[in-house]
Amino acid sequence: MAVRGNKINFARPLEVLSPAGDMERLNAALAFGADAVYLGGKMFGMRAASPNFTFEQLSQAVQTAHSLDKQIYLTCNTLPRNNEMDVFDQFLSEAVEAKVDALIVNDIGVLAMIKRLAPDMEIHMSTQTGIVNYAAASEFYNMGAKRVVLARELSLQEISEIRAKTPKELEIEVFVHGAMCVSFSGRCLLSQYIIDRDANRGECAQPCRWGYYLMEEKRPNEYYPIYEDEKGLYILNAKDLCMIDFVDKLAQAGVDSLKIEGRAKSSYYVSVITNAYRRAVDKFLTNPENFELPQWIHDEVFKVSHRAYCTGFFFGHPKESQYYKDSGYIREWDAVAIVTGYDEQRQLIECVQRNKFLKGAELELLEPQGEPVKIKADEIFDELGNPIENTCHSAMKFYIKSKRSFKKNTIVRMPADKR
């Protein structure tokens, strides 16, 4: 996706790139419309808290994605220390054997090793690299990178200039949704200083979300009140990024890939957000010159657990990108079940429970790559077909009476305050 003059060039499709912390989330991303999924192995990834993928799981993930004509990008974007370099050869050979489509790289030494040991492997330069200008982007292309993941601190105007002044073969990827770091492109030492958990090695404790007390003594008229509440004031807490309303602006700036943050997020989050951006991109592609996002797609991003949203730096310096009251999440909807099948003869939706709900509940069902549909659970049955009043057992199999069928992996959800 690129722009020449006022015309959008569709030589490359606009990619929806989703996160996966394990196989469940991988399958969710693929089912709900991701073109590609990025994930981590057991080493060299920036999400140490996620389960991540063994070599066997990685091979299975690639096979699954490739069977659907989709791609897998493997992260190796930490800053490895000397004692880790000896095992990088094995990590790389396993990535090649698993047939991953690209490696996401931060360290220049790692980049050089990949080019030497696996010259055919596609390389994407991570956002941790801190690419903010066309000279750096072009130089990484000259060094063998197929794609650059730009720093989050760039505006659409700056991205457009990078696109115009770099080789047309170079792909541009940007984060469009999810958590933002308060420091430059994710390079933060705060966690390591405070509790010795290195954010640059995937161990961030998110101290930017904690409450702090601060008093300015010498700068007049610059006050951070220390009396907000007994917990202090959250001066570093960034809002979540959300660009669902501006897919057209991203495409016009020359972005090729829309990246969703969240390898540590739930499969429900991955499903809903992937579906929203998939449908937004599809809607844009049907009429690029007159794009208007349907309201229901806009509303979808508010049906997952999230912080207050902002548009980051895309429209210039953000004026309201911090949330000072607390570090909590907004959670207005809960997933209560996943659809595993449909019995046409008995007109029953087969489900597996995720949260308890009562008979008569107003439910909303979101099919993979579909729109939400409301139904009322007037009749629910246990696995043996007996009528029940609620779904009170964890992971229980149950049925909902419905004349309409729903696809496997459909999400069943409801407002959190109605459960």
Q: Can you tell me about this structure?
A:
With 419 residues, the chain is α/β, with parallel strands linked by helices. It has 10 helices and 19 strands. The protein has an 8-stranded parallel barrel with strand order 3-4-5-6-7-8-9-11, surrounded by 5 helices. Strands 16-15-19-13-14-18-17 form a 7-stranded antiparallel beta sheet, covered by helices on one side. A two-stranded antiparallel sheet has the order 1-2. Strand 8 (147-149), helix 6 and strand 9 (171-178) form a beta-alpha-beta unit. The longest helix is centred in the middle third of the chain and has 20 residues, at 267-286. The model is unreliable at 2-6 (pLDDT under 50).
Question: What is the rounded Rg?
Answer: 23 Å
Category by helix and strand content: alpha/beta
The termini sit apart by 43 Å
Order of helices and strands: EEEHEHEHEHEHEHEHEHEHHEEEEEEEE
Strand order within the widest beta sheet: 3-4-5-6-7-8-9-11
User: Portion of residues in helices?
Assistant: 25-40%
Tell me the total number of β-strands.
Answer: 19
Write the layout of secondary structure elements.
Blueprint: E1 2-4, E2 7-9, E3 15-19, H1 23-31, E4 36-40, H2 55-67, E5 71-76, H3 82-98, E6 102-105, H4 108-117, E7 123-125, H5 134-142, E8 147-149, H6 156-164, E9 171-178, H7 190-195, E10 240-242, H8 247-252, E11 257-260, H9 267-286, H10 295-300, E12 309-310, E13 333-343, E14 348-353, E15 362-366, E16 372-376, E17 380-382, E18 397-401, E19 411-415
Parallel strand pairs: 3-4, 3-11, 4-5, 5-6, 6-7, 7-8, 8-9, 9-11, 10-12
Antiparallel strand pairs: 1-2, 9-10, 13-14, 13-19, 14-18, 15-16, 15-19, 17-18
